[in-house]
Structure formats: C-alpha cells, structure tokens
Design goal:
Number of strands: 7
GO cellular component, one term: ribosome
Structural class: alpha+beta
Helix content: 25-40%
CATH superfamily: Gcn5-related N-acetyltransferase (GNAT)
Number of helices: 5
CATH class: Alpha Beta
Bound molecules: coenzyme A
Keywords: Acyltransferase, Ribonucleoprotein, Ribosomal protein, Transferase
Order of helices and strands: EHHHEEEHEHEE
GO molecular function: acyltransferase activity, transferring groups other than amino-acyl groups
InterPro entries: Acyl_CoA_acyltransferase, Bact_Acetyltransf, GNAT_dom
CATH topology: Aminopeptidase
Radius of gyration: 16 Å
Strand order of the largest sheet: 1-2-3-4-5-7-6
CATH architecture: 3-Layer(aba) Sandwich
Number of domains: 1
Strand content: 25-35%
Distance between the termini: 42 Å
Organism: Rehaibacterium terrae
Largest sheet: 7 strands, mixed
Length: 191
C-alpha cells in the first residue's frame, strides 16, 4: 500500500514551499490519491483494516473529489504542484456548526494534512493562515473542526493556532466510532 510520502510524479523536493493555491477540478484523481494516502498514513492504524478501507473508498474517491472541487461550498487549498502535493486543507461553508460555538458565520475545517516527512517546518502554519484568510474573505467569523482525541500532534498544532476545545464528537471510520474533540477559533475581521 503506498504511503502519503510516496511521490506520484514531479521532481524537485519542496525546497522553496509554500505556494498555496486552490485545487483545480482537473486535479481530482491526483488529489484523491494524495488524500487517501495522507489518511492512511495518519490514521490507518487506528481502526480495523476493513473500516479504514471503507472510509477511504467513501471519502477519497476521484468521483467524490470531482464533486467537492466543483461544489461552491467547498474550498480545497493545496501546497505543491499536481501530483507532488505537500499538504492540503479543506473548508466547507454552510454546514451546521456545533451548538457550543456561538458565531454568526462559522465555517468547518473538514480536513487538514501535511505529509509526514514535511512536518515541523512551519508549512502547516502557512496553510492554516491561508485557510483562515480564505474563510475571512467569505465572511466567516469562526472556524471549527473535529480532531481525533489520539492525535496529540494535531491537537497541539491547532492550539498553537488559536483553537480551543468546545466539546466532543463521534467520528465514524467505517463502522468504528472514534472519539474526537471539537475545536474552534475566532476569526476577527482583519486579523
Ligand atoms: C496536523 C499537522 C498538519 C500539523 O503540521 P506540523 O508541521 O506537524 O505542525 P507543527 O510542527 O507546527 O506543530 C506540531 C506541534 O506538536 C508538537 N508535538 C509533536 N508530537 C507531539 C506529541 N506526541 N504530543 C504533543 N505535541 C506534539 C510539536 O512539538 C509542535 O509543537 P511546538 O511547535 O510547540 O514544538 C500535521 O502534523 C499532520 O498532517 N498530521 C497528520 C494529519 C492530521 O492529524 N491532521 C489533522 C486532522 S483533524
């Protein structure tokens, strides 16, 4: 099974990153592969294999990415050229937010990944800033997300970037109910 760090094309390693941009519809197949690999690498060990594979098939097919990339409510930001991604973030507008979040215009950060071999370089921070800027541009005043309670690195990262825990949620990997934290941060205008 390929891992998130496998190269799917392209040449240069990521010396000068980041250049962060919105993914194009034509990238659906490449992006779905990267998303699947990133999920397997980060969370593949957390549930039974059949549950993990069911989750990947459901959420990361090329057809699903085509739909998400053409959905005006969904914004997918990527770092890196097609097929040589370093990471991605996905925002979904217009979703019901957790009740504990008191906000006029909350937006969900549904997915946020950086390749494992690129962790710790500050590039995830750049991706987060770009995601926050995109959310603000579309009028959002808060960002919320759900993160696995057994993902301490991600939780620490989100805390560093202004997120606080506002509750718990159940996240299904296939048939496996996993315990998540709900986290949120304010997006002050101009901030
Ligand atoms: C979440 C993610 C994007 C953050 O990117 P990153 O480059 O790793 O982030 P940073 O290195 O800036 O921050 C990670 C922090 O966690 C800390 N950390 C690392 N391992 C840790 C652990 N086991 N427990 C607690 N903190 C830990 C790091 O020291 C760093 O904190 P510091 O800057 O105060 O030293 C990246 O780790 C990732 O893609 N993870 C896998 C996918 C994932 O979990 N996505 C979130 C899904 S909701």
């Amino acid at each position: 099974m390929p891992r998130a760090g496998d190269r799917t094309g392209g040449a240069a390693p990521f010396e000068g990153l980041p250049s962060i941009r919105r993914a194009r519809t034509a990238e659906a197949a490449l992006l779905s592969r990267f998303m699947a690999h990133a999920f397997l690498d980060a969370f593949g060990h957390g549930s039974r294999q059949e549950d993990v594979l069911a989750h990947v098939r459901h959420h990361f097919s090329a057809a699903r990415q085509s739909r998400e990339l053409t959905d005006p409510a969904c914004v997918t930001l990527v770092i890196g050229p097609p097929g040589d991604y370093a990471g991605y973030a996905q925002l979904v507008f217009g979703q019901p937010a957790p009740e504990a979040l008191q906000a006029q215009a909350p937006v969900e950060m549904r997915r946020f990944y950086l390749r494992r071999d690129l962790h710790g370089r500050g590039w995830a921070a750049s991706l987060m800033e770009a995601a926050k800027a995109t959310a603000r541009e579309r009028g959002a005043d808060a960002l919320w997300l759900s993160v696995w309670q057994q993902a301490p690195r991600a939780i620490r990262f989100y805390r560093k970037h202004g997120f606080e825990t506002i509750g718990t949620a159940v996240f299904h990997v296939g048939t496996d109910p996993q315990k998540d934290w709900l986290m949120a941060c304010r997006l002050p205008a101009g901030g």
